[in-house]
Amino acid sequence: MVLRMAALAAGLLALCGLPALPPAWMLALGVGLAGLCLARRWWAPGLFLLGLCWACFSAQRALDDRLAPALDGQTLWLEGRVVGLPRHDGQSVRFELDHVQARRARLPASLRLSWFAGPEVRSGERWRLAVTLRAPRGQVNPGGFDHEAWLLAQRIGAVGAVKDGHRLAEAASGRWRGALGERLRQVDAFGYEAVIAALVLGDTRGLSVAQWQMLQDTGTVHLLVISGQHIGLFAGLLYGAVAGLARLGLWPLRWPWLPVACAAAMAGALGYGCLAGFAVPVQRACAMLFVVLLWRLRFRRLGLAQPLLGALCAVLVFEPLASLRQGFWLSFMAVAVLLLALGGRLGGWKPWQAWSRPQWVLAIGLMPLLVAWGLPVSPTGPLANLLAVPWVGVLVLPWALLGTALLALGPVGEWLLWAVGVSLAGLFRVLGALAAVSPALYVPAPPAWAWPAIAAGSVLLLAPAGLPGRWLGMAPFALLVWAPAPQVAHGQAQVWQLDVGQGLAVLVRTRQHALLYDTGPGSGERNAGRQVVLPSLRALGVGALDTLVISHAHLDHYGGAATVLASVPVARRVAGDPQHLPPQWRLQPCESGHAWAWDGVRFSQWRWADARESNPASCVLLIEAGGERLLLAGDIDAAAERALVAERPAWRADWLQAPHHGSRTSSSAALLDHLQPTGVLVPRGTGNRFGHPHAEVLARYQARGLRIHDTALHGALQLHLGSYDRVRGLREQRRFWRLR
Predict the structure, then answer these.
(1) What is the sign of the dihedral through the CA atoms of 669, 675, 680 and 681?
(2) How distant, in Å, are the alpha carbons of 11, 65, 318, 709 from that of 27?
């Protein structure tokens, strides 16, 4: 049985490693082969093929429901029902629309929309909206979040911006969650009303950035995101209550306590899941709990592997695309790690051992996954969870649910929630002290050759105590942190033009130095510095910058600067027009003629002294490595280009960062004829409202035979300057869910 379930699970999980989905005829052939294998009782290959074919079929249905290319960028009137809890973010609201219909076109069933300065939108309402639709395309960067995979796993077929609309009908159903969330936020809970709403409803909209950062630094984010742990805690409380009564002799003998305990636990989990909106992680948790309770009730002699594999297969058969979500892997890996490390032990444990061992076991077992995905690793996480898990499970969660249920009685429920807020205040104070000791760390992913050794070291460390030589696992496990990273060759430069949308951010690394040219667009907390630049720096192992160059004072070039400066040590800071940027950034003016060399790579600055506007005042940077040159031109226009040609007659460039994103006012024939580039790197956003790159500019590039590399089409661009190699875009790494 274990082998059969493992084969089915392997076939279902194989989906996430496919570069492309097989055609229909191949799937039909696979189903036929699977049927033949099963008829001959070749269970393992038959179930593997069956699982793979079902996963591919389900994924193809999701891909077929994506926005048609002909509708990308069009504005259409459509109708649909709001699902989930809309998120109000400053001046805009983001929400999902389901059961979408339009008269003029066939649209995906689910859309993810944003509405700038829109009215209040509530769950369950029906709206008629004018929406500019976009394909569900995400930015692709080293260490970046795979937004396209996440959207496909949610089965969202398009995104869009709402231009106008009106409400067709009030919520017929589903409104109660929003109303309950509003009621919880109105209760006096010692300032922790938003935290209680997150615990009870999974509504994290009210949590502050500081609170999220503290939870991240202490590895306790999972406590505020309703997941398997919350479902398991609540179900365990109900199961334990019935079992405790039976142990004390207080349970009626005519009612078998075990079936009642299992039924109560399952009913409580489903009820809590409905409160939380029954999202995919909650569905996954309920499926796992159902299999575990069934095993507890009927099949206890089958061991521990069967319920885990059974839950895994149940979740993936129900939703094969769940394997594209990080939460899926983290939840199942956590259970597998606990079973490996704690299952099958001889003898009993002391209470302090049962309390402490799961925390350090999970820290060791989950750390490779966190590092591989570029997620933070908390040094204080085991200690924080040692305190926070029982605190939330005993002192917070049950009383928060009870207080919510008793809100209809007025003062009783409100008093309970106030007491829960006091308890949360104490917990957050402890977590804040631990976060101050050591914030979360970002460990660069080790090279590919180190991962088999790391996996073997993890298994050894988690093996039962009776296994001799467990300590030998420490050496290969240490490669997770101390594996030697590949070095940039002396005299060469590794250049990354990051995919930041309609903006610019370029990272240049030599053997021992790093320079960042611009920081991408954005404002407030939603900026490219936080969402793209910092994750990329961490993934590439850049812990400090020797120089930050802000080409000029336009938001699409400096939007992420505040985040970068607050998060990464920067030795030297330069800007084309520093007088128009915040004085606390302590920026130096870009000086024409200033040049320096790092590790055999030469850098030269230039700025047009007669510039009267920000764009032509951009700080231009020429980088030369091994005779190969790259010109970072910022947003200079044709007038500044003529000045550059006149003042730097000897400058040539093999590669050109398209000035002003390929604007019609830049990339003049005079500049191209002077520099004589062989390729151009275009930084721009998909479907940007400026129409970059302009058709005339593209014609000039093509007339000169330039190789055009575009972040909107190819993702982040990597160039090894000095090696005379080609430019590589991250979208070349084929994944079946990525748009071409």
Answers:
(1) negative
(2) 13, 19, 19, 35
In this predicted structure, what is the pLDDT of residue 311?
Answer: 85
Distances (CA, A) of 30 to 5, 26, 53, 63: 18, 6, 7, 20
pLDDT tens-digit profile of 478-518?
999 998 888 999 999 999 999 999 999 999 999 999 999 99
The dihedral region occupied by 45, where left means phi > 0, alpha psi between -120 and 50, and beta the remainder, is alpha
Average pLDDT over residues 450-476: 89
The answer as to CATH 2.40.50.140 being correct for domain 69-173 is yes
Cβ-based neighbours of 694, under 8 Å, separated by 6 or more = 662, 663, 664
Instruction: Flag whether pLDDT at 234 surpasses 80.
Output: yes
The yes-or-no verdict on residue 371 having pLDDT over 70 is: yes
Residue 299, both tokens: 């099949």
Spell out the domain ranges in the chain. Answer: 69-173, 186-437, 448-482, 493-732
pLDDT of residue 204: 85
Report whether 4 contacts 43 (CB < 8 A): yes
pLDDT score of 345: 58
> Do the beta carbons of residue 165 and residue 130 sit within 8 Å?
yes
Percent of the chain with pLDDT over 90: 77
Q: What residue type is assigned to position 188 of the chain?
A: D
- E strand or H helix at 353: helix 351-372
E strands present in 608-736: 620-625, 628-632, 655-657, 679-682, 707-710, 717-721, 728-729
User: Around 91, how many Cα atoms within 13 Å sit in the side-chain half-sphere?
Assistant: 4
Distance CA 565, CA 228 (A): 37
pTM above 0.85, yes or no: yes
Separation between Cα atoms, residue 97 and residue 167, nearest integer Å = 13
Residue type present at position 68: A
Q: 22 preceded by cis ω (within 30°)?
A: no
Tokens, residue 359? 């925390």
Distance CA 472, CA 481 (A): 16
Contact 58, 324 (CB under 8 A): no
**Band of pLDDT at residue 303, cut at 50, 70 and 90:** low
When mean pLDDT is compared across 339-343, 467-471, 710-714, the lowest value belongs to 339-343
CATH of 493-732, one of 3.30.1120.10, 3.20.20.60, 3.40.630.30, 3.60.15.10: 3.60.15.10
In 3-state terms, what secondary structure has residue 527? strand
The answer to whether residues 222 and 378 touch, using CB atoms and an 8 Å cutoff, is: no
Q: Which helix (H) or strand (E) holds 48?
A: helix 43-64
- Closest Cα partner for 388 from 357, 364, 424, 341? 424
The DSSP secondary-structure symbol of 582 reads -
pLDDT per position as a tens digit, 53-71: 999 999 999 999 999 999 9
Task: Answer left, alpha or beta for residue 161, where phi above 0 means left and psi between -120 and 50 means alpha.
Answer: beta
- Report the 3 state secondary structure along 273-291: HHHCCCCHHHHHHHHHHHH
Q: 541 — alpha (psi -120 to 50), left (phi > 0) or beta?
A: left
